[in-house]
Amino acid sequence: MKHLALILALTAPVALSGCVIVSGDTDSYSKGDWEDREYNNRKHISQLELDMTYESIIRKMGVADFNELHQKADGTYRVLFYRTQRTMEDGLTTKDECTPLVFKNGSLIGWGDSAYAHIG
């Protein structure tokens, strides 16, 4: 009997290592997750004001989906892209699904595609 228990104890981890338990509807969870994220980003963006600092935006909104840095003659521009709308159901976030926030020398100077086009 001890041998059987020992054999079961040694083989159980190997036999069970490939098991995955999924509960609930993962599609609706994923959908709700990105919808919540987009809504939250849109809500924060609607409360932005010019001259807010880069640091205060990061504290409020968290890590951006994309981040760019442009060095120009008149200063340093940083662009943060936050996902605000879905365009394709491919599970990937692309820049066209994001709203850009444009900073010059650490201060917010605008947001949206028109603000981003000015530094292009």
Automatic annotation (TrEMBL):
Residues 1-17 form the signal peptide. Pfam families: DUF3192. It comes from the Bacteria. Keywords: Signal. This is DUF3192 domain-containing protein. It comes from Alteromonas salexigens. The lineage of its organism: Bacteria, Pseudomonadati, Pseudomonadota, Gammaproteobacteria, Alteromonadales.
